[in-house]
């Protein structure tokens, strides 16, 4: 139901015109009686607000000036009471200037060469298409056929890499080019 656009009900004929107390009360409710404004209270409120504003204006900033002056006096007294600076008793500064620290760093032992396998396929055409995608990245790969217990597989291999870090660097290049699933192994080329 649309309450906003509906029409208000019309009063019944004869309502409020009846005789007696009901009719007079209904008339009194329809007419608003203006109450006199209490001017004394309004004037008193304005005087109080003005007095409060004047008081705030008078005390504004006086506390900060007193605190700043007091702080300045205490800092002057503190400077006057400071003892003389003691002589430096630390000698490590002069001692360490002429010293050299020698550290023995063991050399990294190079492990076996690393190979990265990026795919293993049943058909040579799938392996060659992955090899072409890798070539588009700028890396050289090989397709090697291997015989297993479950048939012939074509593996796409990159490497050999001397360190795992070099293999990881190429793997991240391939991942940025949407070639995923490359694994780094300690394999021999034999």
UniProtKB/TrEMBL annotation:
<protein>
    <submittedName>
        <fullName>Cell division protein, FtsN</fullName>
    </submittedName>
</protein>
<keyword id="KW-0812">Transmembrane</keyword>
<dbReference type="GO" id="GO:0051301">
    <property type="term" value="P:cell division"/>
</dbReference>
<feature type="domain" description="SPOR">
    <location>
        <begin position="108"/>
        <end position="187"/>
    </location>
</feature>
<feature type="transmembrane region" description="Helical">
    <location>
        <begin position="37"/>
        <end position="57"/>
    </location>
</feature>
<feature type="region of interest" description="Disordered">
    <location>
        <begin position="1"/>
        <end position="29"/>
    </location>
</feature>
<dbReference type="Pfam" id="PF05036">
    <property type="entry name" value="SPOR"/>
</dbReference>
<keyword id="KW-0472">Membrane</keyword>
<dbReference type="InterPro" id="IPR036680">
    <property type="entry name" value="SPOR-like_sf"/>
</dbReference>
<feature type="compositionally biased region" description="Basic residues">
    <location>
        <begin position="1"/>
        <end position="24"/>
    </location>
</feature>
<keyword id="KW-0132">Cell division</keyword>
<dbReference type="InterPro" id="IPR052521">
    <property type="entry name" value="Cell_div_SPOR-domain"/>
</dbReference>
<dbReference type="GO" id="GO:0042834">
    <property type="term" value="F:peptidoglycan binding"/>
</dbReference>
<dbReference type="InterPro" id="IPR007730">
    <property type="entry name" value="SPOR-like_dom"/>
</dbReference>
<keyword id="KW-0131">Cell cycle</keyword>
<keyword id="KW-1133">Transmembrane helix</keyword>
């Amino acid at each position: 139901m649309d309450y906003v656009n509906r029409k208000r009900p019309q009063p019944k004929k004869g309502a409020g015109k009846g005789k007696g107390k009901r009719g007079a009360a209904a008339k009194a409710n329809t007419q608003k009686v203006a109450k006199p404004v209490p001017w004394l209270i309004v004037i008193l409120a304005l005087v109080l607000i003005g007095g409060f504003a004047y008081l705030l204006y008078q005390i504004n900033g006086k506390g900060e000036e007193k605190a700043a002056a007091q702080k300045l006096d205490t800092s002057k007294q503190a400077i006057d009471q400071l003892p003389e600076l003691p002589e430096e008793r630390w000698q490590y500064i002069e001692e360490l200037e002429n010293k050299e620290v020698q550290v023995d760093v063991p050399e990294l032992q190079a492990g076996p060469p690393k190979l990265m396998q990026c795919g293993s396929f049943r058909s040579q055409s799938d392996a060659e298409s992955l090899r072409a995608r890798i070539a588009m990245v700028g890396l050289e790969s090989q397709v090697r056929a291997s015989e297993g217990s479950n048939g012939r597989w074509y593996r796409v291999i990159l490497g050999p890499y001397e360190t795992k870090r070099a293999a990881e660097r190429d793997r991240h290049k391939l991942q940025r080019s949407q070639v995923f699933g490359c694994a780094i192994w300690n394999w021999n080329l034999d």
